[in-house]
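#lab-general

N.A. 3:47 PM
ok so I finally got the sequence cleaned up, no stray characters, all 80 residues accounted for. can someone with queue access submit it? mine expired

B.Y. 3:52 PM
send it over

N.A. 3:53 PM
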Amino acid sequence: MQRLGMPISDDTILRHLKRNAARADGEAPARIVGIDDWSWRKSWRYGTIIIDLERREVLDIFDDRSVVSVAQWLKRQPLY
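B.Y. 4:20 PM
back already:
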């Protein structure tokens, strides 16, 4: 965030995204999702984000990048 000139920590941004993702639970299920992972620290710690591409909203954030975590999340989602 420092490189972008934003005086806020990465953890604060993630907390905000998770809080907003929790509010979206009552809405209609997402039809098109995007999944991306990133490295907090190269070859050490990773995260995964799931986004509703139609609404441009964060649906969930994981503290890992495992296929099992994403598969469990997808199984919990209602079908459109």
